[in-house]
Design goal:
This protein is α+β, with helices and mostly antiparallel strands. Helices cover 29% and strands 33% of the residues. The chain has two domains: 131 residues, Immunoglobulins (Immunoglobulin-like, Sandwich), CATH 2.60.40; 42 residues. Strands 2, 4, 5, 7, 9 and 12 form a six-stranded mixed β-sheet that branches. A four-stranded antiparallel β-sheet has the order 1-3-8-6, with no helix packed on it. Strands 10-11 form a two-stranded antiparallel ribbon. The radius of gyration is 31 Å and the shape is elongated. The termini are far apart.
């Protein structure tokens, strides 16, 4: 009798868990690939992603959103956890989702300018976690549903010298100026030498 009762309780518990998951929020897509083509100097250059939060339930719900990083064996091969979670900007971090509707949140990757040159040619992994409020299941049991969207982030390709575009342009300009000056003095020296030759010949 005790075994039958225990099995019945387990069945009821799993049924409740399953129904909570089905009737809760959904997120789309399940993963995002973000490629930062160059370190940003304006808003257009920031790596970003858009995530949809769906509420198929008949009741309104408020969810919170935060950034998280994978740990240990949870990291995808070829990637490493993002060095600093504060580089992931989420707008908004809390959102009200009406029943039978959906909303969008914006996620951007903003690496501080003073460390950008340290992170060329890197691949990072991170999570955007959407959390529902805890739900009482009876007694002292509370269940909190969290859904995670994986972010796969690729940083810009660096130059062999590790220089940024601005530095390369400056070097090219300086080199051209030096070449022009060298050419000018070379031509002037050639003319002076030619004049001296003709004078001597006369």
């Amino acid at each position: 009798m005790k075994k039958i009762l225990a099995a019945l309780l387990i069945f009821v518990f799993l049924s409740l868990c399953f129904s909570t998951t089905v009737s809760g929020v959904k997120v789309w897509p399940g993963k995002h690939y973000i490629k930062i083509n160059r370190w940003y100097t304006s808003d257009e250059d920031v790596g970003n992603a858009r995530i949809q939060i769906q509420n198929p339930d008949s009741k309104d719900i408020t969810v919170t959103i935060r950034a998280d990083a994978p740990g240990g064996k949870g990291v995808t091969e070829g990637y490493s956890p993002i060095p600093d979670l504060s580089w992931i900007k989420i707008t908004p971090t809390e959102v009200h989702v009406p029943a039978k509707s959906n909303v969008f949140i914006e996620v951007s990757i903003e690496v501080p300018e003073d460390v950008q040159e340290e992170h060329f040619n890197e691949k990072w992994e991170a999570y955007v976690v959407v959390s529902e409020p805890s739900q009482a299941m009876g007694g002292n049991l509370n269940i909190k549903i969290e859904l995670a969207v994986k972010l796969f982030i690729t940083t810009p390709t660096g130059y062999p010298s590790g220089l940024r575009t601005e530095h390369m342009i400056a070097i090219i300009v300086i080199s051209l100026v030096i070449l022009i000056i060298a050419y000018y003095y070379s031509e002037r020296k050639s003319k002076t030498a030619a004049q001296y030759y003709f004078k001597k010949k006369k």
